[in-house]
Amino acid sequence: MNNKYVTYKKLQSGNEKDFHDLVLLFNDVFETENDVNKENIRRLLNNPSFVCLVAFHHHEVIGGITAYELMSYDKPGSVMYVYDLAVQNIHQRSGIGSRLVSELLADCRQKGIKELFVQAEEADAHAVQFYQKLGGESFKTRQFHFNL
Fold it and tell me: Measured in whole angstroms, how far is the alpha carbon of residue 129 from the centre of its chain?
């Protein structure tokens, strides 16, 4: 794909349809069946600590990244946590994911955020390679999940 036909946009209040389409894309790429909660989408797009950047090919959502700004208690400022990043399967490996991360990093710099972090499962070699290629530093950690 020629990237000159891809546009990038930071979603905000009023872009609920685009966010809805991104959630459907996440479901497709991650092979999940998450519901689209319209109320949560509206609330998230009105939350200044939430960032959603989307890649469009013409008017179709073909990729996106979501992240949360988390206030630090041990140092001034905050950090950014990437929650999800996905690109439509047919558009992967064309620079769209890298550009989404680059756009998020620029948004962080503009806000004075000095650290961005993301989790990738060790078994997801593609994701691990992707973040390493972008210059991310890897740390061995364990994630614990509690079902409530």
Answer: 17
